[in-house]
TrEMBL record:
Domain of life, source organism: Eukaryota
Presence of the UniProt keyword Magnesium in the record: no
Main location group: membrane
UniProt family annotation: Belongs to the glycosyltransferase 92 family.
Membrane topology: Single-pass membrane protein
Name this polypeptide is given: Glycosyltransferase family 92 protein
Organism: Xiphorhynchus elegans
Leader peptide range in chain numbering: none
Length: 439
């Protein structure tokens, strides 16, 4: 009896010790930040020299596929508007990608921190299986990482992971007032004349930078882009999305059942906003065949000053789209030297379609990038502050393209020659570009 009692007492003591150990470990885990799930120390006991920890290859492509081939990293950005996080713009399969980790390398402390990522797939996916996503990780304390790797696991060898530079770590004064984001240029784009006219109109209205996410374009268009790059106006972001996914040129899955819609336009727009968050006061989100045309002001700067004064706290300004069909033209401004250039001469298209009954005119935007969290094409999904629909008598989007109302007679169209206010400067500037590139 006594012998059995000793065994029983030993077993009880052992259980108590095990339970106490579990409680201690659990208590220690609670002391760690919630999103920092694991801390891995480098093998060296002392601080390693700068550059020794992050030995993974630095990614140099705009779109980098992870090993699962269902997660694609565009670029990470530092975002301290609410808390100190790295926000990674990416593309993910909305069902198959459930868990990701950020591997932060802190130098010169000699520590690697692995942080559990929150995967936020944007709501405007339009039925496609892949969509734009924010992969957000809380950064560890006392660490200002310059690079981050993304992995499906909290375990592994960091040497095998591509690493990405975290942009926007340094706050700088704005270098420009307006940046235009165009996404995406695809389909062997060759509307050369209209592109040059749009570019010159953007510059007349106040844009200093145009960022283009380029999938492909014609050889002639490449020459024009080279001119604008050398001029310092255009920044090209290579956009090889068709190398990774089956892309659709349509906006909805029901129209074309591919992996992702409209060449990943939404992802590119979000990347463009964060890319320019620290360097541009405003970002203009429109296509190359669209111009936000002021009616009450000579340029964007005076227009936006007035709109901000009237709408304090507003960071999102939405402008109504109006179609100027390329099928309806005027003989005015039929400039012979332009006739050999492929593309549309917008000066000859000054008749717009009337509003359709019970049909919403889509809008494009000028935004304060520092107030945007997530954007779609025609609206901002999440932002700080308010949005405002700009009245049509203040500005409209001049959109010269194929007609939407094909059966309308010419007399039903509305003659609108607002664009002609800029004709002298526009013609002079377009001729200058053509003389240095094509003619």
């Amino acid at each position: 009896m006594i012998h059995c009692g000793k065994k029983h007492i030993c077993a009880v003591i052992a259980c108590i010790l095990i339970f106490a150990s579990i409680l201690i470990c659990y208590w220690k885990d609670l002391q760690l930040p919630n999103t920092v799930t694991r801390k891995i120390l480098h093998k060296a006991t002392s601080a390693s020299p700068a550059g020794q920890l992050c030995r993974g290859k630095v990614a140099n492509s705009t779109i980098t596929a992870l090993k699962d081939n269902k997660t694609f990293i565009i670029s990470p950005y530092f975002d301290d508007r609410e808390s100190k996080v790295t926000r990674i713009i990416g593309i993910v399969h909305h069902e198959d990608v459930k868990q990701l980790y950020c591997w932060f390398c802190c130098q010169p402390s000699g520590k690697i921190y692995v942080s559990n990522a929150k995967i936020d797939v944007h709501s405007d996916r339009f039925g496609f299986p892949y969509g734009a996503a924010d992969i957000v990780c809380l950064e560890p304390e006392n660490c200002d990482p310059t690079h981050v790797s993304v992995h499906q696991s909290a375990h592994g060898n960091i040497d095998q992971l591509p690493r990405f530079e975290i942009k926007n770590r340094q706050t700088e004064p704005f270098s420009v007032d307006f940046t235009v984001c165009i996404s995406a240029m695809f389909g062997n784009y060759n509307n050369v004349l209209q592109f040059i006219q749009s570019m010159e109109m953007y510059k007349i209205l106040g844009a200093q930078k145009v960022v283009i996410y380029k999938n492909n374009c014609s050889h002639l268009m490449e020459k024009v882009l080279k001119f604008y790059i050398e001029e310092g106006t255009v920044e090209i972001i290579p956009w090889p999305i068709s190398s990774h996914l089956k892309v659709s040129s349509k906006w909805h899955f029901s129209m074309d059942a591919k992996d992702i819609g409209y060449y990943g336009q939404i992802t590119a727009l979000n990347d463009c906003i964060y890319r320019n968050m620290q360097r541009s006061r405003f970002v203009v989100l429109n296509d190359a065949d669209e111009i936000i045309l002021p009616l009450k002001h000579p340029d964007w700067k005076t227009m936006m000053s007035s709109l901000q004064e009237q709408n304090p706290g507003t960071g999102i300004f939405l402008f109504e789209n109006h179609i100027f069909p390329e099928t309806c033209s005027t003989h005015t401004f039929n400039i012979s030297s332009w006739n050999t250039v492929p593309g549309v001469n917008i000066l000859q298209h000054v008749h717009r379609e009337p509003d359709r009954k019970d049909v919403f005119n889509p809008r494009k935007m000028i935004v304060d990038p520092q107030k945007v969290i997530q954007t779609s094409v025609h609206s901002v999904l999440h932002a700080y502050g308010n949005s405002v629909n700009v009245p049509m008598d203040v500005a409209l989007i001049y959109h010269c393209r194929k007609p939407l109302q094909r059966d309308l007679p010419r007399e039903s169209l509305i003659r609108d020659t607002t664009l002609w206010r800029y004709n002298l400067s526009l013609i002079r500037n377009v001729n200058k570009v053509l003389s240095q590139t094509i003619l």
